[in-house]
Amino acid sequence: MNLEHLNALKKLLSSTKKIAIIPHKNPDGDAIGSTLALWHYLVNKGHTASIISPNDFPKFLKWMPGSETILNFERENSQAKSCIADTDLIFTLDFNHLGRVGQMTETLEKANATFVMVDHHQEPSSYAEIMFSDVTMSSTCEMVYNLISELGDSHSITKEMANCIYTGIMTDTGSFKFAATTSNTHRVIAELMDLGAEGTEIHHRIYDTNSPSRLHLLGCALKNMVILNDYHTAYITLSQAELDTHNYQKGDTEGFVNYGLTLEGIRFAVIFIENKEEGILKISFRSVGAFSVNDFARKHFNGGGHTNAAGGKSDDTIAETIAYFTSLLPQYKYQLQS
Known about the structure:
Distance between the termini: 34 Å
Strand content: 15-25%
CATH architecture of the largest domain: Alpha-Beta Complex
CATH class of the largest domain: Alpha Beta
Low-confidence stretches: none
CATH topology of the largest domain: inorganic pyrophosphatase (n-terminal core)
Oligomer: single chain
């Protein structure tokens, strides 16, 4: 952890501050878990802090301690803008480019506050005066745990904070199976459990509370799966009509892309999801081994992320996007076979 930036943050937090904490658009377990853990920490230290999410987040995360306080920029726009304009310090968590906050970008760019970035994605931009960026970390939640510890406050981690941090680490590591899960990650998890984190209950709340419509949507997604054995690739498509038919709720497609990687011999899995409201196709990429979906997403689909997990988008139709995607695969055939 950068000692100069750590000392700068310690100095800033040595006096009471007004603080805004921002996750990325369409926040996942790591984004919500890390922002909530940091919010609890800062409030308990006497600061005035607010979490402002660019938009809503999935229902299966709304049990998390403090989630009811999160402002939704889309729904509570005036209050959110006022909060950002009146803040001394802005923490951005689980993203490293302001474009990841959607319609909030312009508001953040106009803010006069000092920016602090805490993130584990590749190729960070330079908008933050204080940066904690580490692509070797399993999750932003693991980074928040380490940051609080480096600030000398590991003793202040409460059960509520432990549950939030555990949630983010668990979800971003695929229940501890992804390559970024290190021995230190497991040590942090052990510490969190000692502090009261309820691992079994958290897993149940995240993964074992399906609605019938979500399971029917999963069935639709699996029926749509196309397997390209020559390229060790599988992809899924979901149209807006299919989402509507199955009463799609935010977060319902979480994890669908990973089913492709459960097939023997598949090293590259993709899901294309139509979003008529935004006029785009949202794309999630997953891989195993050395094939970098981060590079693939950045080069071809205006996205990025990690070596084995990334996102992107397309402004074309599903058919046009699939045609373009499949046309790219021959140039990656050797990498996908290696």
